[in-house]
Task: structure prediction
Amino acid sequence: MREINVLPEFNSGTISFQDIPIFQYDTSLKGQLNKTIPEKEAVRLLEAMLYIRVFEEMIIRLKSGKFVPAPGFKFIGATHLSIGQEAVAAGTISSLHPDDYITSTHRGHGHSISKVLYRIYSMNRKQLLSFLGKEDKGETVETLMKQAIENLLFKAMAELFGKEEGYCSGRGGSMHIADFNSGHLGANAIVGGSMAIATGAGLSSLLLENGRAAVCMVGDGAANNGICIESMNFASMPQFGEGFPVIFVFENNQYGMSGQQEKKMTGIKYLSKRGAGFNDKNMHARTESGMHVLAVRNATREALDICRKGEGPVLLEFKTYRYAGHSLSDRRMTYRTAEEEEEWLKFDPIDLYSKELIENNVMSEKDIKNLRSTIQSLMEEVTEKAAHATDPDPKHITDGLLSDTTSDGIGDQYRTVSFNKEMNKFRRDSSGRILYRHAVIEALMEEMARDSRVVLYGEEVAEYGGAFQATVGLYDIFGRRRVFNTPISEAAIVGTALGAAMTGLRPVAEIMYIDFILMTGDQLGNQVAKTKYMFGGKAKIPLVIRTTVGGGKGYAGQHSQSLEAFPAHFPGLKVVIPFTAYDVKGLLKTAIRDDNPVIFIEHQHLYIEKNAVPEEEYMIPFGKGIIRREGKDITLISYSHQLKACIDAAEILDKEDGISVEIVDPRTLVPLDVDLIVNSVKKTGRSVVVVQAPARGSFGEHIINKVQEHAFSSLKGPVRLVSAYEVPPPMSAPLEQENLPGAKRIVQNIRDMMKS
Ligand SMILES: Cc1ncc(C[n+]2csc(CCOP(=O)(O)OP(=O)(O)O)c2C)c(N)n1
Ligand SMILES: [Mg+2]
Result:
């Protein structure tokens, strides 16, 4: 079903870009007070900036030992101060609705404090009581609000101290604070790491039509990272309208760690220029002062209007300056001058804005002094309380890694109600068999019908039906908002799927070949895998990443690897690797209903294999392997397409040598059915593991470790690993066939083993 033709056009001309506005917003309060900004809000902007500054000044006092909140207290961990940049945090976040999302950075205290603070400011009495978890004792809203703010500062400080009461139960610390209840999807210590997460949150807002925007706070350094470019492009995809409701905020404090943006790291003076490459509206980009809180506020308010009208994304660059070093140990005078610092100090956002408040008779100098000293006393109180809070119990080190929930039992509330085309099961042959790839499609079809939050996306998955035809027909049934093609941006595919999964969708994302999963290294290993645990165990991440393994087709080094050990390495990911059509259907349905990230590895050679697949619904639980062949002399453990060679080998050994091989297929690598493996080895006393990958660092080595750990005393000899050579997969047929561990090599190894 084609909708838009791409026709040849070769008319000569030039491309011109629209102007990108710089520094155009009114930075003074005069014309705005009680017009666009009520007095109460005007005061709160100063309050917000002061909370951030005093919080960070406290960190300096703690680090230097000038404030000792508890006997023997030692301040540890990596901490980055945003003193000088407070107007960016307060100005952007004060403009948001409490339901809007933010993502933040390693320098994110200001963002974290502001997001919760402005949620508190929006609360009525009932909401404040519920936030504080207390009964109504007749206290005024003002008193409750003060208590809520105290609670916010305490939880933030407690997180810096690694305490159980902290925002992330001490699992994240300063660089990884999140508060999902307040729409804060997490600070990120990977520079640029949150760009795709925010884009995914924008995607879910767009598809769920809930009117929320996502604001992605990143630094100037992050603007040069690949994920930044991928995300801005992804968010600008016009296939659902103009693009996603995402505001990318480049908080340009002039430096990375020490690398200077202007004239050294990037060839452009204004990073807002980067908006010109992704859509014909320059992403509505603009550069404003990040030292003038009202300019930041006005720019954000306009950006939000653009997003809410469906005309996002927007790129905002705020020019600002960090007064402190990059981190607490930074000797900043090695890369910048006192003269430069002095010039920027003249634009201190708190001083500039205080002057506005005084000049417009909103606050007096004395009021501001009192406010600061009240906040300072409060900060000392919460810091002492945080230092005396609970240390996490090492017994609970693994708590919060995985969720034990699924979407089973959701009933009909999310059922898909309109279909573009009738949904039909695949016709079974006389033995009830269908192709493996049709079983994949059936699983997706059933789950997408059952739960409208399930969306399928990746490269070529829509009209074309996937590179291996394993999604054919789904686009016709469910339409573009449920099944869509993405740019060739693997990192963004995975990162957006994470953001979308955190905000209400249940994405199934496809990475065409597992070889390309290396493009997603950060998003998969640092973001998807860690988001639940690092942020205190609270996130639900109902996300499936489907990918494929090939090999044996002459596709060589970059399209033939078996990289299942890569995702299996990261705690927080489940890894599933089905062998039959029956398994692929039952396991994929389980994966889609799981509330954890699942890496689902299909095999290109298995797509055209047939197996019996019942028409009635069934599911296969994770962590339950299967005995593919009963035997008594040796246990062979393998999975996916490699099992075919194992079965062939077992038949040869049975016929020619009278050796009885038991074959165990774990079906899921994480969790691994260790019991099934170990019980089989205990029975046979011998074990061989077969993998398609090179041995070093393979998942086979992990299986062997488990066998030796639990069945050592039953072993009659060493466990062997039959694997590929330690080379990249070669192209030439004889070389590739030699590389793959076929039946012959398995037979030779087992014969050898049986001699000892
Ligand atoms: C991907 C990645 N590369 C490098 C680092 C080390 N690092 C931490 S912060 C930082 C500078 C980041 O600069 P910018 O994005 O401008 O943010 P700022 O620190 O100025 O707030 C660097 C290089 C990192 N954390 N992540
Ligand atoms: Mg910077």
Summary: The chain has three domains: 75-348, 433-612, 626-755. Residues 219-221, 253, 255-256 surround magnesium ion (ligand 2) (CB under 6 Å). The first strand starts at residue 101 and ends at 105. The domain at 626-755 is CATH 3.40.50.920 (Rossmann fold).
